[in-house]
Amino acid sequence: MTATADRTATTVRVEGPDKVTGAARYAAEHGAEGLAHGWIHGATVAHGRVLSVDVDAARAVPGVLAVFWHGNAPKLSKSPDPFSDVLQSDEVAFRGQVVALVVAETPEIAREVAATLRVEYAVEPHEVVLTDEHPRRYTPKRVNGFEDGDSVVGDPDAALAASPILIDARYSTPAEHNNPMEPHATVAEWSDGHLTVEDSNQGGVAVQALLAKIFLMLPGHIRVLNHHVGGGFGSKGTPRPATVLAAMASRELGRPVKVVLTRQQLFDLVGYRTPTRQRVRLGAGPDGRLRAISHEALSQTSTRTEFVEQSASGTRVMYAAPHRRTTHQVVELDVPMPSWLRAPGHAPGMFALESAMDELAVELGMDPVEIRRINEPDRDPEKDIPFSSRNLLACLDAGAERFGWDRRVPAVGARREGEWLVGLGVAASTYPVLAVPSVAKAMVDVQGRYLVAINATDIGTGARTALRTLAADELGVPAERVTVLIGDTRLPMATIAGGSMGTASWGWAVTKACRKLRRRIDRHGVGPDGLSAKGNTTADVLRLAKRSRHAFGAQFAEVRVNTVTGEVRVPRMVGVFAAGRIVNPVTARSQLLGGMTMGISMALHEHGVMDPRFGDHANHDLATYHVAAHADIGEIDVSWIDEHDPDVNGPGIKGIGEIGIVGTAAAVANAVYNATGVRVRDLPITLEKLLT
Amino acid sequence: MRAFAYDRAGSAAEAVATVTAADGDTVYLGGGTNLVDLMRLGVARPARVVDVSGLPLDAVDELSGGGTLVGAAVRNSTLAADPRLRRDYPALSQALLAGASGQIRTMATVAGNLLQRTRCGYFTDVTKPCNKREPGSGCPARTGVHRDLAILGHSPACIATHPSDMAVALSALDATVHVLGADGGRVLALDDLLRLPGDAPDRDTTLRHGELITGIELPAPSALTRRSAYRKARDRASYAFAAGSVAAAVTVTDGRIDDVRLSFGAVAHRPWRARLAEDALRGGPADAAALGAAVDRELAAAAPFPDNAFKVPLVRRLAVATLLELIGGAR
Questions:
Q1: What CA dihedral angle connects A496, A500, A501 and A507, to 10 degrees?
Q2: Pseudo-torsion of CA A408, A409, A413, A419, nearest 10°?
Q3: Both ends of chain B: CA-CA distance in Å?
């Protein structure tokens, strides 16, 4: 059974009217009295040292208040996160790195002076291209997501060698860039040694903690506000340079300072998905049963930070096979710092694995849904522990039905409509479920009005609305009587909106606080002083039983490939997900729809083109870095399985922020193969790859 | 962005006088969809802009000889929607609608569309060399990022492409351009307005200092212009410049081609009028083999780079398919 969005009054976004009328204010829309404007000047060399910045010439321009560079910037305490380590040394580790901040009375003056700032460098040679056999590739201990770099079960080499059917294929995905609609922006203001920042981020708690560290302050002396955030995709998970620069400049100048990144600067300064190069080997018997799985992933990182995309991580849980191995390698290059982008690891990794599964199905002449069915594990195949719940097969079956999978013709190139070849493809999705301790407070007054306070962050996902629904359900009152306060570090501590764990983590604390409050109301009644209760999930998270916790999904794609031009269109997709409790069907559908849209974009468009000579991504704006336009997206049918999983966390939520992008690109590529017989193993699937 | 002065022109003559009298730092402003972007990027740094978008050059007039004069300030969306032009010059409205986005078309003027600058990433990034932006600084594109750049008519100094869709249709339709200078007006063929880069890639056009485009003239409609089409291949379904495009017009009698026009987009520094192919086709058979051979003859001059070699087969296929479709419809 699947369910889709049903629109009711309580599921409509709480802040929807504020957003469509413009009343909702985002970070850059805040302006304090005496506001000054900072503009970043980025390095124009990829590797070297800053020798000098012509501060005097810049300061001579009327309206310029200050030019900060490492030669005059205040020394800050060392940041554990290189993204917030700015203007602290002369080293240039990548093109676009922050070299100076110009602060002026107007943004126009700051921008012009920053753009024309004269900087002298000692230039050193740079290396920016990731290759399979790069001599400096190494095996990291850990990869992103706190997982081990390598894993092995049994003897995969021997099992692969002995397998009657072997798929051995190499896949690659390009650099992909975070482009939330709202660029990173901060307004910082100091007062009596206290710092307040209006900041576009995915979690004030992370910003507060890092600012406290680098400015050597008590966290309580820093207030971070983020009432409305226009998307993040991971790039706002921890503070980016604008936050630190605004705080630094404001302290030095004794005035509030605003720093906003340009769209172009997002390509250099906020993290992007590393390009990946992957090899997948599948050994199977003639019956299609996997005997061995090997997934090797290579990615790049910057010399400033070790970020390792966990591309082979999804392979650890997907299919049963007695012999298995996953490995990660990474190369430090003179490139901008990669970081999180929606479904780190799983988005590129599942493109490779799910393409390889399709190749195996083709090799065996089996149905791609069936090959997944017969390799379905009953326990976590690597950790050998139970799944808290796993409904991949239910998603595949429901999706096949909704999509009309039975109309697929296995022979390639068999469906032609005029100039167009039509193909169908499928791929599976997965994403891990995490929960992080959070605290919420629930209050009621004598009039029966409820207030729920938690420093959660709504980055456009509908978190505020979902938390209100969870609270109202737990309190047994209509949602209209509940007000949810979020986006302020003065509220009870909560984790960031990231890792698909926001609603699960916050919702757990909220339901716990509300349950406690309801018991108090039942016991004491509500007097003139009202009642309140706190929910803290720290102990609950630690007490979680040892389970393999993952959401699963199935994605089906219909593609049309033009035989004259090679152009690919995706008129139709079906996505079915098993993600535990779906709190708000309206906003949940939007998130999954957005993930699948981004997955189509990843399949067909997104490609940060590294310029080897200059060391930057050459297409650093939205005219040249293509994301799917409206016209690229046809019908997307989103639904979910009714999944009840009490083992996953308190409210039974698995999270839906990321799984929508996982598997989409493979489903599209597999459909392109079905349409044309061309197996595109290197994303994106651009027209020249199909001009055969 | 450099601070600049803004003037709204009272008349075309006044605008021309103002810009002619000034040095190169004073420029015309149309819809601003390209110039303002370039100003933000620091690629264009005018001291003064003279806004000509409000001049009374916003009409589409039928001329006594049967031709049509399209005012320079006519918006792209207005021109694309003109019912008479849609009937008489379908390639033109198809090209306009294939370009940019609805919002941009509503702002952009016809003259601005012709005069838009290349989207080569080296031209638009002031931190990198570019002979077009900074003569003599070099062209990194030949050995760098050039997937979207020229395969025909490029020079050692520049391999940029002209980004307009509309201009490709105008080229195939033999449109001319009306220009006003301090010494009076003149009329140029489109190919005589837009240049190949040669050793002066900083000059996109042959316009003299201060000259203002006042309109574009379409020749009288004919069976040929009515049987015209524009087809564009692109990397996404909307809001993308062409990976390759063609404008074509053809008339056929008894299986033989009477007359034909063919122009390629996204392959050169200006729309590439395929005169060799046209000459080969005129009077010949209207079949796929003959069409392919004629297009090959034109593309024999192509000198692609490693990452844009696909444009040669792409343009060939687009041209043959578009002509075949027009020929099929003629039967």
A1: 100
A2: -50
A3: 56
pLDDT at B24: 86
pLDDT on residue A1: 46
Whether residue B233 and residue A565 make contact (CB cut-off 8 A), yes or no, is yes
CB A574 within 8 A of CB A402: yes
Q: Read off the pLDDT band of A476 (50, 70, 90).
A: very high
Q: Which residue in the block uniquely carries the two structure tokens 């003569």?
A: B135
Would strands B5-8 and B48-51 be described as parallel, antiparallel, or unpaired? parallel
**Bridge-partner residues for A562, per DSSP?**
A420
The answer to whether the beta carbons of residues B267 and B244 sit under 8 Å apart is yes
Mark yes or no for CB contact B236/A626 under 8 Å. yes
Alpha carbon distance B136, B199 (integer Å): 10
| Residue of A64, A94, A564, A620 to mutate for B, most B C-beta atoms under 10 A | A564
From CA A536, how far away is CA A538, in angstroms rounded? 6
Supply B29's token pair: 């402003």
Distance from CA of A45 to the nearest CA of B (A): 9
Which residue of B lies nearest to A95 if distances are taken between CA atoms? B127
Mean pLDDT of all residues in chain A? 97
**Spatial distance between the Cα atoms of A640 and A553, rounded to a whole number of angstroms:** 8
List, as one string, the DSSP characters of A550-615. Answer: EEEEEEEEEEEEETTT--EEEEEEEEEEE-B--S-HHHHHHHHHHHHHHHHHHHHT--B-EETTTT
Q: Side by side, which strands form the sheet with B256-265? A: B228-234, B242-253, B256-265, B272-273
Residue of B1, B101, B234 lying closest to A108 (CB–CB): B1
**Distance between CA atoms of residues B153 and B144, nearest Å:** 18
- DSSP letter string, B223-272: HHHHTEEEEEEESSSSS--EEEEEEEEEEEETTEEEEEEEEEESSSSS-E
Mean pLDDT for the stretch of residues A486-511: 97
A149 and A137 Cβ atoms separated by less than 8 Å: no
Confidence grade of residue A9 (pLDDT, cut at 50, 70, 90): low
Contact A319, A372 (CB under 8 A): yes
H-assigned helices in B125-237: 166-172, 190-193, 223-226
ipTM here: 0.97
Beta strands in A445-567 (DSSP E): 450-453, 482-485, 531-536, 550-562
Mean pLDDT of A377-403: 98
Helix (H) or strand (E) holding A512: helix A502-524
Which of A356, A486, A467, A468 lies closest to A24, judged by CA? A486
Determine the Cα–Cα distance for residues A331 and A189; give it in Å rounded to an integer. Answer: 40
Starting at the earlier edge strand, list the strands of the sheet with A119-123: A91-92, A48-53, A119-123
Residue in A613, A639, A676, A674 with CA at minimum distance from that of residue A334: A613
- Minimum CA–CA partner of A692 in chain B: B313
* Listed residue (A416, A429, A392, A370) closest to A557, CA to CA: A429
Q: Is A127 a catalytic residue?
A: no
Locate all alpha helices (DSSP H) within A215-294, ordered by sequence. 241-253, 263-269
How many C-beta atoms surround the C-beta of residue A120 within 10 A? 11
What is the residue whose two structure tokens read 């290579």? A298
Residue A344, sorted as left (phi over 0), alpha (psi -120 to 50) or beta, turns out to be beta
Q: Which residues pair with A258 in a beta bridge?
A: A37, A187
CA distance B55 to chain A (A): 29
Nearest to A102 by CA among A53, A138, A139, A173: A53
A623-682 residue pLDDT tens: 999 999 999 999 999 999 999 999 999 999 999 999 999 999 999 999 999 999 999 999
Contact between A288 and A366 (Cβ < 8 Å) = yes
C-alpha span between A664 and B11 (Å, rounded): 56
